[in-house]
């Protein structure tokens, strides 16, 4: 019988339970960060249990890292969370990439970078953007705090099997249009909850040509469509990315042979299907307070349909029928697990090379990991950013959610490569406009958003 990629991985991991009820699944990789792990470890201690597979668990520090002066953690809560993670990982023998460490970075950036994220695995983390790892053809999803404890203790998790949705991406990607625009375009069209209850697989000719970095950006934002899991079939691009990475399988050819069995046999197997054509896609930006409140550079800000729109407009300080070019920007932020990988920085640096930021703009460039940071310094990207007038920071979540000193001030507008534009997300009263790294970099130079896909843009 033909099966989906999702079904094949699921079926190889069921330990107990029947379809239609929660099933117990084996977990191949458990990623941990400082925010959602303190209680689970307390739970283990209070019941005198150990971590079942510390070797399949990996911890990093990301949310609370001060990206300017990494060891100078002023905030008491942040410091407590970091110290607690260091203490817990030591006590339970879990590998930790602490601040300053070569392997440290945003959890969803370092998993793939180390080669821990691999096809056909089940990967969990107490973090909603775990969907990112699905780009490798893994089932990867965020879990709650009590589930983190369960996985630590048993290396397994109870889950209801979701339905599957195939999103076929067709057409030709226009100039300067990226994976970020595709996923933002899909969410703008179908809303922030169409994926609830579904595991999404992205497929089709456009996806096949995307780099691993771009696939990660798409899968990362599946959660913003309500789906806990976004995935892409593993292929040669996936295998080439993984080859030679620190934690990649040593018998690599055998691994590739195994991974190659994991694909959707027939698209008619999806419970739900949709198609998204990118040929006419324009750069996307958000105007409101959820990722679905977005428009393309060819549109004007929408009219007020309901109370939610009114609230969003009141918060964001804009008005209907404005052009996206007229959104007054104060900051640009290039970072987060959506868009802080080397390729993202390279695209942004290309936009900024030999140019300088507009006088109204403050820019923070925050690489997703120390490895990326080092590579960007070595290859001259950091210099381009610094010469353009940007602040070049240390790796961490930074202004993506402002759980650290990187906060956008109240009332200020930021063009951001992150994934959420919720009220207060990037600092109390901050006003977020999500976009691709190329768009955000170009906005930094121009001082406002510009249509980088237009013929006139050079
Ligand atoms: C802090 C963490 C639990 C949270 C998440 O789950 O996503 C954060 O990473 C976010 O992006 O909002
Ligand atoms: S970068 Fe942002 S979205 Fe990603 S894990 Fe950190 S806070 Fe969450």
Question: What do you see in this structure?
Answer:
By secondary structure, the protein is of the alpha/beta class. The protein has 2 domains: about 5-275, Aconitase, domain 3 (2-Layer Sandwich), CATH 3.30.499.10; about 285-445, 2-Layer Sandwich (Aconitase, domain 3). Helices cover about 30% and strands about 15% of the residues. The chain has 15 helices and 19 strands. It has helices at about 5-10, 40-45, 75-90, 105-115, 145-155, 180-190, 205-210, 210-220, 235-240, 250-260, 305-315, 340-350, 370-380, 380-385, 435-445; strands spanning about 15, 25, 30, 55-60, 95, 120-125, 140, 155-160, 165-170, 200-205, 230, 270-275, 285, 295, 330-335, 360-365, 390, 415, 430-435. Strands 5-4-3-6-7 form a 5-stranded parallel beta sheet, with helices on both faces. Strands 17-16-15-18-19 form a 5-stranded parallel beta sheet, covered by helices on one side. Strands 11-10-9-12 form a 4-stranded parallel beta sheet. Helix 6 (about 180-190) runs parallel beside helix 8 and helix 12 packs across helix 14 (about 380-385). The longest helix is centred in the N-terminal third of the chain and has 16 residues, at about 75-90. It is globular, with a radius of gyration of 21 Å. 3-isopropylmalic acid binds next to loops. 3-isopropylmalic acid binds near residues 36, 63 and 401.
């Amino acid at each position: 019988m033909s099966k989906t990629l999702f079904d094949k991985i699921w079926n190889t991991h069921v330990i107990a339970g029947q379809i239609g009820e929660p099933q117990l699944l084996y977990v191949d990789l458990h990623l941990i960060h400082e925010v959602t792990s303190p209680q689970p470890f307390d739970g283990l201690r209070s019941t005198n249990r150990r971590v079942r597979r510390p070797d399949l668990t990996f911890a990093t520090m990301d949310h609370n890292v001060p990206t300017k002066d990494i060891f100078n953690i002023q905030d008491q809560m942040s410091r407590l969370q970091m110290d607690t993670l260091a203490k817990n990982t030591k006590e339970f023998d879990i590998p930790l990439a602490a601040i300053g460490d070569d392997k440290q970075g945003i959890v969803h950036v370092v998993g793939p970078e180390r080669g821990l994220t691999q096809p056909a695995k089940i990967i969990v983390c107490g973090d909603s953007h775990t969907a990112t790892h699905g780009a490798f053809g893994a089932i990867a999803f965020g879990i709650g705090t009590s589930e983190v404890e369960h996985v630590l203790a048993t290396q397994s998790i109870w889950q209801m099997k979701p339905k599957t949705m195939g999103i076929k991406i067709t057409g030709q990607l226009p100039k300067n249009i990226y994976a970020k625009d595709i996923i933002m375009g899909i969410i703008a069209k179908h809303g922030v909850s169409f994926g609830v209850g579904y595991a999404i697989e992205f497929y089709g000719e456009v996806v096949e040509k995307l780099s691993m970095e771009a696939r990660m950006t798409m899968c990362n934002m599946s959660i913003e469509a309500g789906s806990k899991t976004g995935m892409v079939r593993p292929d040669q691009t996936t295998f080439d990315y993984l080859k030679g990475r620190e934690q990649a399988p040593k018998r690599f050819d055998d691994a590739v042979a195994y991974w190659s069995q994991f694909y959707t046999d027939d698209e008619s197997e999806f419970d739900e299907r949709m198609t998204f054509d990118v040929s006419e896609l324009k750069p996307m930006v958000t105007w409101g307070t959820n990722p679905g409140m977005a428009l393309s550079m060819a549109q004007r800000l929408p009219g007020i349909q309901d109370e939610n729109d009114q609230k969003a407009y009141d918060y964001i300080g804009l008005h209907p029928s404005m052009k996206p070019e007229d959104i007054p920007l104060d900051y640009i932020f290039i970072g987060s697990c959506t868009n802080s990988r080397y390729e993202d920085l390279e695209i942004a640096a290309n936009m900024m090379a030999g140019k300088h930021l507009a006088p109204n703009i403050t820019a923070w460039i925050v690489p997703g990991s120390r490895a990326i940071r080092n590579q960007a310094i070595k290859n001259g990207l950091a210099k381009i950013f610094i010469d353009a007038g940007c602040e070049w920071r240390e790796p961490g979540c930074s202004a993506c959610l402002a759980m650290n000193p990187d906060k956008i001030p109240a009332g200020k507008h930021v063009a951001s490569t992150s994934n959420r534009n919720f009220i207060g997300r990037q600092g109390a009263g901050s006003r977020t406009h999500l976009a691709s790294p190329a768009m955000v970099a170009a906005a930094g130079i121009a001082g406002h958003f510009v249509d980088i896909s237009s013929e006139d843009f050079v």
